[in-house]
Design brief:
Layout lengths: L1 H26 L1 H4 L3 E2 L2 H9 L1 H10 L5 E2 L6 E2 L13 H7 L7 H17 L4 H12 L2 H9 L2 H8 L1 H12 L3 H17 L3 H24 L3 H19 L3 H11 L22 H4 L31 H8 L5 H4 L21 H13 L3 H17 L5 H10 L13 H20 L5 H24 L12 H6 L4 H37 L5 H21 L7 E2 L1 H5 L6 H7 L7 E4 L9 H5 L12 H9 L6 H6 L2 E7 L5 E5 L7 E4 L1 E5 L2 H7 L8 E5 L3 H4 L11 E8 L2 E8 L3 E8 L5 E5 L2 E3 L2 E3 L3 E6 L2 E9 L2 H36 L1
Parallel strand pairs: 5-6, 9-10
Antiparallel strand pairs: 1-4, 2-3, 6-7, 8-13, 11-12, 12-18, 13-17, 14-15, 14-18, 16-17
Helix pairs in contact: 1-6, 1-7, 6-7, 6-9, 6-10, 7-21, 7-25, 8-9, 9-11, 10-11, 10-12, 11-13, 11-33, 12-19, 14-33, 16-24, 18-21, 18-22, 19-21, 22-24, 24-25
Amino acid sequence: MKKELLNKNLLPPLAAVLIFLVVIITYFNPLIEGKRLQQDDISRYKGMSKEVSDFRKEHHEEPLWTNSMFGGMPTFQISTLYEGNLTDYIDRVLRLGLPIPADFVFLYALGFFILLLTLRINPWLSAAGSIGYAFSSYFFIILVAGHNSKAHAIGYFAPVIAGILLAYRGKYLAGGILTLLFLALEISCNHLQITYYLALTALILILALAVQAVLEKQIPRFMKASGVLAVAAILAVGPSIGNLWSTYEYSKYTIRGKSELTSNQENKTSGLDKDYATQWSYGKSESFTLLIPNFKGGSSQEALSTNSAVYKALNDNQVPNSRDIIKAMPTYWGDQPFTSGPVYVGAIFVFLFVFGLFIVKGAVKWGLLAATLLSLMLAWGHNFNGLTNFFLDYFPGYNKFRAVAMILIIAQFTIPLLGIMALSKSFDAETDQKKTWAALKWSTLITAGICLIFAILPGAFFDFSGSGDAQLKSGGYPDWIINALISDRESMLKADAFRSLVFILLAAATIWAVLFKKIKAVYGIILFFALLIIDLWPINQRYLSKDNYVSKNKMEIPYEASPADELILKDTDPNFRVLNLTVNTFNDASTSYFHKSIGGYHGAKLRRYQELIDFQINKNNMSVLNMLNTKYFIVKGENNIPTPQVNMNALGNAWFVKEVKFVANADSEIVALDNFDPKMTAIVDQRFKETAGKLPAAADTTATIALTSYKPNELKYESNSQTEQTAVFSEIYYEKGWKAFIDGKPMPHFRANYVLRAMNIPPGNHKIEFRFEPDSFKKGEKISFASSILIFLLLAGFMAYQVKLILAKKE
């Protein structure tokens, strides 16, 4: 009995896991050798989180605030450890201790495998399909970029859908527990955009199942499953409530929240500005990259061969170092500003998806089709403004996310899923041979026909010039290079179209062979496993190969101090800011690695600070830079060597002003900064008039205020004055957490100069303190811990129940 149980229930999944490990470890072999994948965003993460991680090591607590970028901001979406969320331990087990990012690819495969098993698909076919799904090009491209939280969240996308579908099949308990577990893990990954797309996919599938329930008069069953899933979803939020609560509070004040400024209203939403949200929009024709990887020229920096037209043109014009030049050519001619590579789901999967539209029946098919189409259309962004603007204006939460092309992860999920469902059905011995053969012919004709047309006549549809070609010309590219580049773009499309055509024909031939009993289904599964690997592996190698690895030390210490950094680091002043003009200031994390930066790198900076950048800092308003205590500028010196310049007019950590000027609103406040002396005047919104109180008394030339102790989450000052004074602090105002105290007693403070803190200080000697203590974090951690314990108890109870059932069957 034990041997039978092992062979039937445990052996296939264990074998599948072993297959995943072998394939993934082989691909990521340099990780096993001790190297690390060079991930730009991880290097930036280390830069932006350096102050946080150093503080955590020294003080063994979470600072929750950092002054290392954009003048200061919460760390909720940078680096905060939520120890109350215990589901992290389950996540570690599921990742099997694999090195990053191999562990994420393992989650891709494992999650999809769980889904396919719940759909009762042969475990060996499920294993093959899961590897194919895991090797989707975009899933690897984001690893090179360092989008680890995104990859992590994608890993739990499929098993959440598994739990939902299981519940609607009548397996209420199992479906509810599966949804609870994996949704809790999904939310814990802290990539809300992926979780949002998961919710959208789930909603579409549930709507399709609701229609089916009405037609089949199964509404009570549908409602019961929906109730179970609603409870599971609520409980799944619990372990991450600390993060979600803090993030929700914070988001209202970031560029993801509504601006108080009234200009440019046609471009604004209650979240991101429309042009910012849709900057990365997929072109309509670019959607063919799902089928043909180099349809739009691959990445923005693609390597060409010595057989390329560009190489020949370089040699004909006797350009030196031709081989080096062709290693990074701008072959991409799509609509996005730039790209690291195409979204290629696989020619085989696209073919199988079309095949599935013919032979798969039921609500799930229609839900997957609807989700796929919506994903494609929303990915077009500003290329399909009607739908995009509708979602940005009216669909809850949609305008909080940028890079609309990311929604193609839905298509990357739905296409392989329906494809494997179709393959499973065609391999079924009881399938209708005649209808399946007809479906096979039509799906082959459609997909192979598209590839054949583009392989033979691509010039009939495109001229292969891109929107960025004008910039190439202005950048010094001669016409003969651009013409050669256009020729290579056409050749790349032809080659990959022919490549996809071959894989479609081989896949169709395999189905035909199984369908007409030329080979056994098991050999068909092996062939598909091989075809998927042969198709997808080389495409991923274009963007993630052995050349992308560096030493472990390089990733652990991503930035070297420049001579300017070294000189500034000798300054013993604990708190001042640096403006680095030798880098892309507001898209840079290297400065944050060493200093408290005026700039930085983050997609959810405070909106008011972004507006300060747009309206004042970008105009070189020295009054604003002085009030931000910008003590040093880093500029290019001789031989372009970074050199520090001391700003003698920086106002320091705090100062007393002689007057408070009240203004009507945010518009007036930002304009008032155009021409004012921050040392003398504080600009304050009239909403703070009651807190700010009366204007300061007569100037006290002997009054002093100075910083005495610095921590990112705790600032201490001492003041001395003969009369009440208004102090302005060169610290960013954020009302959801910063608390002010005078001599240990809580005191109100208010916003001044659009982004800074200000406070009325009574006469005499006083100790002033600012502490960052957001209630959302403290209370949220307690709720997270309690929710985690509840989930663990439910999981333990479910497992005990399953063991009891197995033992009962054995008897």
